[in-house]
Structures are given as structure tokens and as C-alpha cells.
Amino acid sequence: MSTSNLAEEHVKPAVRWGIGHALPRAVLRLAARRGDLQGRITVEASTGADLTGLFDEIRARGPLAATKVGHTTTRHEVVKAVLGNDAFITARPRFGAGVLGKLAAWSATNVMHPVQPPSLLAVEPPSHTRYRKLVTRVFTARAVEQLRVRTQQITDELLDDLDPTNPVDLIEAYCGLLPVTVISEILGVPPEERATVLALGGAAAPSLDLGLSWRVFRDVEAGLTTFDAWLTRHLDALRANPGDNLFSRLITAREDGVGLTERELKATAGLVLAAGFETTVNLLGNGIALLTRHPEQLALLRSKPELWANAVDEVLRFDPPVLLTGRMCAQDTTVAGIPVRRGQIVTTVLAGANRDPSVFSDPGTFDVTRPNARDHVSFGAGRHYCLGAQLARMEGEIGLRTIFDRFPGLRLAAGARRRPTRILRGFERLPAQLS
């Protein structure tokens, strides 16, 4: 390899990190110091602080509170209106034709990324319509329900491996292993390769977040590169010997004789791995923490196990796995009577909308019997509504119910630590004593 190629190999990742993470993080910190609401919510989220007061402050500023780059909202009806409005598209960094734009183009990589095209998270109609229609035909509610028995078996096997006499970090030993094993089933991963997928899932999951450190960014890129190479081999194997799994069905799915391209298949697998892994880890961890801290709610579930499905939605409402999502205005429009100009960003704070008192009575109370818990917006809304919502609910219900059935004396130990992430919300460590 030539000296210039070696230089590019080392410099390009640094440029990608600088433009995609270091620069936004610095801008947000500066904005936060100046009181900007967008800056404050993303910076304060990384500290693990309770953001309820900030949610209320944003809501009090009106339907759309002004920020340095556009607007933000924690009002439930406005969040749904923005996410369902065709005038808004998924927000991705756009650097124009200046120096930053040229650097971004020069340093770009061809490796699949869960939040870059052709990921479903990042494409818009008409491509999104065709793409999602094919994926939805495979990831049906019925197909997910057929995974229920296997998910219960996986859960039981994981809990069998835990020694109830020893302290355990539930994130490492349970909350992370359950979703990645289910994802392996969906992707048709042979048992002997599941350790590889677990490692790749752990490496790729932070790719959904903003403001990554250089060390985490390098781990993410290495994980995505390895996953891309593994996927090439795995797709070839499934085409030669398709199995009884959702990914094999997706490979053969056709609409008017046309299926997904190789890149679209890889992007879908990457999205399933990254989004399905991290968000479900957070759902399980947040749910365990909430139920151990609200023993009266856990007692209700034990006396009325039919409430478990509703309890999962209340966990999703009260402490959602994702804090916020952004949309860019693609054409001048009006939302809740307020003009929004083309190019402006609207940050919809999902966790804030879930605490909107106009929709949820006493929103700061965790209540597994809440009649409208399912009205939360933790899975988004509109055309980008989470494809894995049904799967997440099913895993959450089985994963939470079973661990508390198996270990009724479970209690948290000292040392729990929230993730220092800005968009993803969950625990990095959750030490517990099982009995």
C-alpha cells in the first residue's frame, strides 16, 4: 500500500469522526451554555439527569420552541404531526458545497451504516415506500408472534445459566444476550456463529447515537466493517440454503418481480442488529430498574399477570429507549400554526411527549394499569414508525415477566450506571442480587 493510501486509511476515519461527532458535540455544548433548548436537552441527556423539568420548560414555550437550528417540541400532538407530515424528511447532516461538504465527500465510506442510506431510517418516498412494503410483508405481526415460543425458550435458557447466589450485571448477562439471540434467529445465524453476532451487535449499536468519543467511534466502524464482510458470506449461504427464518424470506421477497438489492438487504440486517439490539437492551434494563424501584407495581403484576403487556408499554412511556428524533423541513410548511422554513430542523422529543399532561394524567407516575399507556410515541409515528415495535413488545413482555417469575427476590445492587449517550436511554451497568 502506498504512503498516500496509508495516510488516507488513517485520516479519513478521523475526518468522519470530526465532522459527524466531534463538531456536533462541540456545537451542542456551546449552544447549551448559551441556554439553547436543543443544546441543553442533548447535553443534559448524556449526564443521566432527570429531564422532566426541561421537558416542561420546552412545552411551556409553545407548540414549537425555537432553537439555534430550528425548533423542538415535547407536545404529544405536535410530535405526531411532525413525524406524520410529508413536508419533513429524516434529518441527516448536510454540509453543502463548502469545505465541510468537500471533506465529508472525500472521507465517506461504502460500509453499511444503520442511519445512512439505504437504511429504512434514512430513505424517503418513493424508495422508502417500495422498500418498506417488501420488508413489512416479511416482518408481519403473525411472523413475530411465531417467534414467541422460541423467545420464551431463549429466555429460560439464559436464566438457567445465572447463578442466583452470585451478584450479576443484568445488562451483560441477560438484557444484552436476549435480544441478540432473538436477532440471530431472525437473521438465520447458525449457532456456531452467534458469538460473532453478539460481539458485532455490541459494537454496532452505538452507531445510532450522536457525539461518540473517538474510541467508541473506531470500535463502531470496525464492527460495522466486520459485519459487512460477514453479511456478504451469510447472504451467499442463505441464498444457497435458505432456512426457516425471516431473513431468508426477505431475500426471496418480490414486489412486481423486484426484490431488495444486495445493499438494501445488508442495510436491513444492519438496522435489525443495531436498532433491535440496543433499544431492546434499554427496554429490558429500564423495565427491571423501574419494577424493582416500584414494588407495589410489581405486586400488581404478580396478582394480575394479564397486565404485563400494558406494563411494557408503561415502561416504554415512562423511560423510553430513545430520547428524541429529528426531522428536516424539505419545503416551507406550517405546524400547529407556526411557520417552519425549508432546511430547518425540528427535534421531536419522544420522551417529553410521553410526559405530556394533556394526554397522560399524572404523567410523572409509573402506573402499569394506565389505560392509555400504549399511546406513547416511543416507536415514533408516520412512515418511519418502528418496524420492530411488535417484536420489542413481545421480547419486553417475556423478558421482564420471566425474570421476575424466576427470581422473585431480585433486587438491584449498588453500582448501577446510565449510559452517557445523548439519544439512546438506558443502563450501561445494572448490578443485581437475584435471591
UniProtKB/TrEMBL annotation:
It comes from Lentzea rhizosphaerae. InterPro entries: Cyt_P450, Cyt_P450_B, Cyt_P450_CS, Cyt_P450_sf. It holds the Pfam family p450. The lineage of its organism: Bacteria, Bacillati, Actinomycetota, Actinomycetes, Pseudonocardiales. It comes from the Bacteria. The keyword Oxidoreductase applies. PANTHER family: BIOTIN BIOSYNTHESIS CYTOCHROME P450 (PTHR46696:SF4), P450, PUTATIVE (EUROFUNG)-RELATED (PTHR46696). The keyword Transport does not apply. Transmembrane segments: none annotated. Belongs to the cytochrome P450 family. CDD domains: CYP164-like (cd20625). This is Cytochrome P450.
